[in-house]
Specification:
0% of the residues lie in helices and 45% in strands. The protein is mainly beta. Strand 7 and strand 8 form a beta hairpin. It starts with a strand and ends with a strand.
């Protein structure tokens, strides 16, 4: 399978917005879950959001619910994570994940098989 490739990270002030993108063309015909995770140094990778392409159902961690939105484009070649009202606690390396099995999606690292290299998001207060 093709490794997902993230883009769109950067630095932003608290309260601002960023949109992350992930090229997922190798999984456009798959109905397996896609997701976004993040990790800060010294901590485990945390599941942030996931989507089940089969029916479009989305899943979010409590820490980002209401602020982040996961979506796909119509071709299902790109996965997005729209992040609004960013907080300093959102600072992390963000990873795109693919092949997470059929829904319901699980926001656990061991549920996904393929990972991107990550893109850094830094939120300053």
């Amino acid at each position: 399978q093709v490794q997902p490739v993230e883009s769109g990270g950067g630095s932003v002030q608290a309260g601002g917005s960023l949109t992350l993108s992930c090229a997922t063309s190798g999984y456009s015909d798959s109905n397996y879950c896609l997701g976004w995770f993040r990790r800060v140094p010294g901590k485990e990778r945390e599941g942030v959001a996931a989507i089940y392409p089969g029916d479009g159902t989305t899943y979010y961690s409590d820490s980002v619910k209401g602020r982040f939105t996961i979506s796909q484009d119509n071709t299902r070649n790109t996965l997005y994570l729209q992040m609004n009202n960013l907080k300093s606690d959102d600072t992390a390396m963000y990873y795109c994940a693919a092949d997470g099995g059929r829904g319901p999606c699980r926001l656990r690292e061991n549920a996904f098989s393929y990972w991107g290299q990550g893109t850094q998001v830094t939120v300053s207060s």
